[in-house]
## 1
Amino acid sequence: MDLGIRGRKAIVNGGSAGMGRSAALALAREGVELFVSARGEARLQQTCREIADQTGANVIPICADHSTDEGREKILASCPDPDILVGTCAPPPMTPDYRSITGEQWREAIDISLLSPIEFMRRVLDGMVERRWGRIVNIATVAAKYPGEIRVLSGSTRAALANYTVAISKAVAKHNVAINNLLPGMHHSAFVEEQFSERARTKGTTYEQEVAEFSREWRIAAGRFGDCDDVGAFVAMFCSEFANYTTGQSLVIDGGATTSTF
């Protein structure tokens, strides 16, 4: 299926691993020119080479911290007029006890997962409006809609981001600019694999056993974690020509872990 975005330019922040990487790969398969940012240079360079080799797309790595002014300037200097903006980041640590969260952790979470995407949107939206075409997708977390203590550090800032994006999506929709959010649950990302592998080492179990136990405990209807490439496919669809009448939405992708009619 041709999504109608061949030749478009996209910034993918946090795109060296996990859902960000899957988003970049899905867009590259559609012929999008990519500008991929991440903090770790070695993994970023490898990811960009792999995506370029697999798809033939033009993939430019940008080693930068998108939560800082300096990092944002570097990214936007490389691609000042993107047609597509996709944002994600490494999630903060799980928080089984809300009392243990430090002020520094709050400030870091706010900078990375709220203020950074807001600033990127502020910087690119005028150009999208002027060109009468734009797509923005924020990969957030299901905890933004369904709060839980274990993800309060992540969910609260992303809930604020979802509120902001839905509000401004109304202002730009008439210019063929669509802004949407994805709210994924548990997926086999680099972060999850690291966290659950450490659990397994501590308990003398396996990664697979820990995933199965978590899936039972949190009543994930699918009985498993998701694949990051499935999230990437939704990113590509939300960035497509077919998303011209879908805006201000926050789509949950969690294997049926949460229960809601809408």
Note: The radius of gyration is 18 Å.
## 2
Amino acid sequence: MSADMIPLISKALGETVYMVAVSMLIATIIGIPLGVLLHTTNKNQILECLVLNKVLGAVVNAVRSIPFVILMVAIIPLTRLIVGSSIGTTAAMVPLVLASVPFIGRQVETSLREIPEGIVEAAQSMGATPMQIITRVLLPEAMPNIVAQLTTVVISLVGESAMAGAIGGGGLGDLAIRYGYQRFRPDIMIATVVVLIVMVQVVQFAGNALAKKLDKR
């Protein structure tokens, strides 16, 4: 690989980190409350509302069933409406967020479901409100598991951000396609893959470490 490609790889890496970090932040802000709603509105839960639960569940399942490549193309009008363009790293974050929110919601719901019912019942017996149970019991108890699940989502986002490069989303995927594939530069393709592997390893290590630190058991 020639020295002139190093700045391009550095720029592409920065774009990928930007896409993944911002998309993950937005998706987490929306996805965690969604997961809490999916759990707490279910049958025999503290905010039981089966109609809302079924509607949310149906929407989440519908979005999760759409392959990411198809989703990117299908919501181009929405992307243009939100950011004014369908090309570039900022535009790529719209489908990344939309794909991640339902995934995070289901992961959070699963983590909350694993909390023993006795803990919630004890909080209720002491007069805790539903909001207090959510913020002081459910989320703290499930946080190690939630962090572990969010780590998986980040890794998925890294791969999806590379796919976003196929439609002009920038980042490492765009670099691999434009220079590695279209210009027949296997060294660029290999370098891109290596960088992506390193990113995933770093994310997994950091996520495991944080989850372990939060686990008080």
Note: The chain has a mean pLDDT of 89.
## 3
Amino acid sequence: MKRVRFGVRVVALAAVVLVGVGACALDPSADVTGAAAPAPVAETERASGASAPPTPARTTGSPSAAPSRTATPKPSRTTSPAAPAKPSPSGFTGCPQGEHQRAVETYLARLGGFGKVTVDGKQSAADCAAIKKFQRRYGISPAAGRAGATTYDVAQRLAGTEVSRCRAGKGLTFCVDLTRQTVWAMRGGNVVMGPTVTRTGMAGYATPAGSYSVGGRNLKEWSNPYEVWLPYWQQFNGGIGFHETTTYLHEKSIGSHGCVNLLHADAVRLWELGSIGTRVVVFGRRPGT
């Protein structure tokens, strides 16, 4: 008779009852602690090969061969250094220049608030600092000052947002432009929170346009269908609401299940402004939905 070497492991499932009205969530596999998950690196913002893992060096000869006792090791001082990064046309090498340099300079100059930029398509120390500041503000990773595709996309959307298109009332109104994927707040015709980036419902879960009002708020809402925490939750249409995202906001291959996802600082600011009854105006249509 064969001896049984391994026992059968029985895993007991603990039933946890959590009550929540949030019907949407960004990522069902996200950490349910409520803490924001680490933001993955945006491939489109990398300089070529800049963030690639190092390739293991190949060894020559047999790996099992014993080293010669008489050979004197030579220092590796004669090894040729890696070729320096190609400088920008202006000669500035402080940070890499991206393929959208001039366009990003144009949008940042229009937006203002990020420092002096020169619209000439050439990277400079001032341009680099301004682009880095912009990237940090809107959660673009890595914030290396390179004017890549994601930086270009975000800057274009923000610079193209027309706050007057939101039919805000006299009181506080949260505005959502689905077409440009931006959010802002107005009161009495004045902007009290400037446009920022968002990501709304993906294909099959498109966030519906219309006029609504905030009907429920919770600092940390639990979504029953998707089993994920929704920080700074403000519900305005059934199971749809504003909340902080727990994944990289600029990953366009995914989206919410109808909710309006926000960066941490923006979710906090909207929470501070809002209350039960705050008007919400959603207009436009997210591309691809």
Note: Residues 88-159 form one domain.
